[in-house]
Amino acid sequence: MPPGYPSGVAGAQRITLGVDLGGTKIQTVALRGLQTLASARVPTPQSGVADDVIEAILGTIHTTLAQVGCDASAVEGVGIGSPGEIDIAAGVVTQAANVPGFSASVRLGPLVSEALGGMKVRIDNDVRVGVLGEHRVGAGRPYANMLGVWLGTGVGGGLILDGELHDGRGAAGEIGHVVVKPNGRKCGCGRRGCLEAYAGRARMERRARKLVKRGQDTVLFEIMREESKERLTSGIYVKALKHGDELTKQLLADAAWALALALASAQNLLDLDAIVLGGGMGDKLGQAFVDQVVKQMAPHLFADDHPPVVLHTELGDLSGAVGAALLAAEPM
Amino acid sequence: MPPGYPSGVAGAQRITLGVDLGGTKIQTVALRGLQTLASARVPTPQSGVADDVIEAILGTIHTTLAQVGCDASAVEGVGIGSPGEIDIAAGVVTQAANVPGFSASVRLGPLVSEALGGMKVRIDNDVRVGVLGEHRVGAGRPYANMLGVWLGTGVGGGLILDGELHDGRGAAGEIGHVVVKPNGRKCGCGRRGCLEAYAGRARMERRARKLVKRGQDTVLFEIMREESKERLTSGIYVKALKHGDELTKQLLADAAWALALALASAQNLLDLDAIVLGGGMGDKLGQAFVDQVVKQMAPHLFADDHPPVVLHTELGDLSGAVGAALLAAEPM
Prior knowledge:
Two copies of one chain form a homodimer.
Chain A: E1 15-21, E2 25-32, E3 35-43, H1 50-68, E4 75-82, E5 85-87, E6 92-94, E7 105-106, H2 108-115, E8 121-125, H3 126-136, E9 146-151, E10 155-161, E11 164-166, H4 196-199, H5 201-213, H6 220-226, H7 234-242, H8 246-270, E12 274-278, H9 279-297, E13 309-312, H10 319-329
Parallel strand pairs in A: 1-4, 4-8, 9-12, 12-13
Antiparallel strand pairs in A: 1-2, 2-3, 5-6, 6-7, 9-10, 10-11
Helix pairs in contact in A: 3-10, 5-8, 7-9, 8-9
């Protein structure tokens, strides 16, 4: 049982709900203890109105509860993992630009709480709750000190220290903006040489388009068109890799190189037990990519006879919702 | 009162002793609570025999107790900060190459304990105890999350997270071996581009000698000869700087540049309250150097509207001995 998990009469453990709010989907799960009882997923409404997103969240909560066969009175609380800047105490999300209607401030926690009759609702950063999920239920279970690195559109992270999420002043874990190369590639944050500039999907796509303009060949955009996608998704990279696409290999080699540097530096500073790679790219690229990172990380490790365990996620794209449900059970 | 500090009848707090073992000096202090009662310092014996070093440690302990006017029965315990690899549980120091007689393994804790009639003796890494001292009594007092970076022959560090020293698996804090420039300058550890390769005194001296060979002018080695030193000490850099020495300015600018990158990356990952610069160079260069680092760090901070406080040490070269005495009071 994780620290802070509500104890009680055995078998009478109450249910917690977890919501992973993303720009394309809303994933909700119901947990009893560490066990997932039910889940529901809907596309994130693209209307541009925050109320529609909140309605959709409530919809997944009711669907999940119906599957479990219980009503809100059986629920201990709701956790929500959200992108953007999070005011944990106030339950407010700001600048979650990927979620329609969330570019300004949204009182997400209070609004969901009110709609559920005053239920306890707790919100935190989407990546941090995903890392919490992997730590309590997934790949990170055996480790007290763990860094989770989520490779998606950007690169986020979360730190588990002495078994607990470490928030710092509220923004700990931003490994995506660790500098891997002084004056290196331009990052989405406006700075140069950040890890995210090499290993974030948005910047990788930008790089791909640049190299194609310079005449390099690739199947990446062909696959993208075939699949009627507007962006190079993690799945597209995996397919291109199966075609032996050289540009894809090069982009992933750059990402692995940058990750190896950032992770080795984090390891030298923190002496972690484990590092878990997750997010869309981490989940999809799996062990082969982990191996590539581990190999390049080794030469930079100070305690090179005692490297950390490096793993990919076990819960895949459910880690965020599971972690959010676990968050709901933690003391405020 | 720091966590873990032994409580008791007010005014009847017992005394703890702290020893800072270095390659050139042994510094010992006696503390009651957070107050320094007495101190003693001797040069580290250069005979090459570990027993002589241990005798000298015991000598400073007895001198300190005599100053306080009490005997060993009034002492709660002894803490020792030592260079080298530390087995905290066994009290064993390995490969403290700078301390004569300590290049192999020395049962430092048990040997000192036996000589003091079985007194509780606790050892830890010299930099980490220095950081603990600055956190509990020095510049880091107001901050729960703090990184101490000690600039000496090498660059060491220690992390205070949620108010406690964070050891990881025993080697946390090695910020000196964070990579600031891929394939950059050669470091003493054999790798390339580590922070220590730019900001550690040994590598700075190597760089100075190289630039002098290439024909660059400097007063550094002139001051070194005048002071009958064999190495470029922190004090020599300070004097050369007062002469407006260009080579010194350049070396310190390189060190500040590398520190700025490493500290910004650590900040982005950890979202710290404060960073404290210590060690010989940190103590001697003081606020002007801190300002130089802060200025160059700012552009790399992800949460740039919320930078950490950056400070130099308050206890100077006493931080190690004070921290060791505080360590002696912590629960095992």
